[in-house]
Amino acid sequence: MEYVPLKIGLPRALLYARCRVLWRAFFQELGIETVTSPATDRAIQERGTALAIDEACLSLKIYLGHVAALVGKCDFILVPRVSNYGRHRSMCTRFESTPDLVRNVFRGSDQRFLSYEIDEEMGGRSEEDAFLELGQSLGRPPKAVKRAYRLAKKAEAGHHRERAQKQEQLLKQEGLKVLLAAHSYVVEDAAMGRAVTDYLKGAGVIPLRADLVDRDAALKHSRELSPTCKWEISREILGGVSMLREQADGIILLSAFPCGPDAMVNELIARRVKDVPILNLVVDSQTGTAGVETRLESFIDIIRFQRGEL
């Protein structure tokens, strides 16, 4: 059966860092083309900031800039609604409200938006249910959609496992190691976390990431630092910190201003992890590279001094 050609836009922000393999594989299996917005630059950041309210976090401002970069360039822009993955497995409210926000911000355009909803606790809607409905809404038969989702999940799991294994190899290398406790959409974004990892590598430091560990294991280990944290991704980060803290010479708590969950979780880590030097680094739209590099240089010097290398 031949289908009408479709092009789905994927904003390179927020859940993109976590779900890009899943999304691309799913749509590819259904014969649907995807197009991704370019890496974050000053123009995207400024455009998103102009579209957002002042109180919005930097991650959301950048997301709106990426949506704007895709408007008029695809048939649909994917903007999912993810509330939770079950009891005590909630997402930040921004992931629940994003579709409504985006449709309102871009209500004056002719752009169409595509969404799916995950809400296992209240609505009984699992990720699989959401993707099956998504695929069928695009005119694909249920059997083909189910197969596409199964293959996409396999690709996603394999991709994350491969990245976690690469990090395990880094753990075996000699040298100073610093653990980044941050959301993937912060640490991988060109305007937020990329400068941090680039500087660490340039300074001869091995950067580790708390989010690049087995996710199921991380959720279990998160209870060692907080038995009550309800945010799914924050729990994974907590678990990653718990799993890697003894192998790290320092920890950087990297977040985007003014993230509410990160403000609480980072304070929790700072209070409960006492045996490792910690740097709390918050980036905003005014943060300059020079200021970040100065703080990182001082932090690395402190670690090396404690190790007797200075």
Shape: globular
The pLDDT mean sits at: 94
Distance between the termini: 69 Å
Number of helices: 12
Strand elements, count: 10
Give the helix proportion (percent range).
Answer: 40-55%
Question: Strand portion, in percent?
Answer: 5-15%
Structural class: alpha/beta
Question: Could you describe the 3D structure shown?
Answer:
- With 310 residues, the protein is α/β, with parallel strands linked by helices.
- 50% of the residues lie in helices and 14% in strands.
- It has 12 helices and 10 strands.
- The strands form 3 sheets. Strands 2-1-3-5 form a 4-stranded parallel β-sheet, with helices on one face.
- α5 packs across α6 and α9 (215-221) packs across α10 (232-244).
